[in-house]
Amino acid sequence: xxxxxxxxxxWLVLLALHSVxxxxxxxxxxxxxxxxxxxxxxxxxxMVIFFWPWPCTLIYLAVGSNLLPQKRMKRHAELLKQMKDxxxxxxxxxxxxxxxxxxxxxxxxxxAETLGHMSIVGGNEGTLISEAKDLSAMLVSDIDRANRHxxxxxxxxxxxxVGGPVLEALVRASERGLDCRLMVDSVGSSELAKQGHLxxxxxxxxxxxxxLPASIFRRHAARFDLRNHRKLxxxxxxxxxxxxHNMIDxxxxxxxxxxxxxxxxxxxxxxxxxxxxxxxDWYVETGDIPDLDRLxxxxxxxxxxxxxxxxSGPSYKTENYQRLIVSALHDAREKVIITTPYLIPDESLLxxxxxxxxxGVKVQLIVPHRSDQFLVGHAARSYYQELLDMGIEIYLFDDxxxxxxxxxxxxxxxxxxxxxxxxxxxxxxxxxxxxxxxxEEAYALTxxxxxxxxxxxxxxxxxxxxxxxxxxxxxxxxxxxxxxL
Length: 485
What we know:
Elements: H1 5-36, H2 39-51, H3 53-63, H4 70-94, H5 103-116, E1 121-129, H6 132-145, E2 149-154, H7 163-175, E3 179-185, H8 190-194, H9 197-203, E4 207-211, E5 231-235, E6 239-243, E7 259-260, E8 263-267, H10 270-286, E9 305-312, H11 320-331, E10 335-339, E11 343-344, H12 347-358, E12 362-368, H13 374-381, H14 384-390, E13 393-397, E14 401-402, E15 405-409, E16 413-417, E17 421-422, H15 423-428, E18 431-437, H16 439-454, E19 456-459, H17 461-465, H18 469-480
Parallel strand pairs: 2-3, 3-4, 7-14, 10-12, 11-17, 12-13
Antiparallel strand pairs: 1-8, 1-9, 2-5, 5-6, 6-8, 9-18, 10-15, 13-19, 15-16, 16-18
């Protein structure tokens, strides 16, 4: 059969409909997108929608909003209301050793409490952990000694040489009659679910749930890239672990690259705060009424560390951690050191870094020399020229992929946890971070940052300015998408 006039007319009509509908989409999204996003993110979305209206609109409908399902938002609001009076009781119970802060730190502490609803608490002890195998061994030992309950929450959990022993210890604890709960991110730990390990744990008596199940149809599910990025373990309400380690071998399946992380084992009143974060996440996902009495139980004064927990995520009104970081940069007087695997700053963070440098503060930024994500890596490098022009020192870490997320300010304030210094962690992911107050508390972290510096080489402005044109072009294109990454 030949190509008929009717076929020709059909394709002309189809082409006309596509052209008209594409322009309709452009104009409609021009009105909708700016209402839901910051100007920078809105411009990025409108740009990609302008060039590819139909496919990019479908992508936007799937991942373009950081709004959570109404059921989750309602549960979060209900729990915050229930905990309003409880927070006062917890403060009286846990803050009997309220640390005496210098005036320079009072503002940050007050802001952190306003944002995350948790007070600074003294009387804590902590041990920093760099190696994943050490983290696994220490957690297994604590679980094997537990006599009441074990709660675990990890973005990535794998049944390998790191995560496997922890799963087995969790089963042993459950078989001893302990209340054991495991929450894993639905996307980050999808392999664990596919391999049948979650069903095995449930058969062994462990309570298991997946955080933020993803679906294109988002009435009851979150957007695919809206993730629970927290790393958290609580044993008997007495010991807690948090930081940047996922519960997986540090090679993440790579043969030539090792992730360098940092976590901390904590004892003392701050454990109750971390437990509150887990209970909130568990309640929001499952609807199980949390045992809030656990949070008001007295806690032993274990050590000298003053620390404050700052949870963040889309369920909060503001970008908690971003606000705190920016405020600390504005307060910095002498020196700031930042380590992060992914650096995609928003405008306010970029300005805070610039203002700090202009005031004479020495700002050192330690980032991986090699990134594991092509587009994100090039988007991050697109900011290097601007940062170097500001006078910020950039160091490229060569001993694997630096995955520790830390910031120290003037040797007396330290930030540490699961949040990267990028738009995704600040605005889209659920994160958990700690703020440490005082010179002694910050010393251990600055010492580790110093070791990172020794394994890095400084990037100089001339070297970066001489990079090839095609590399600059690729970075520029990636930078356009940075608000969406």
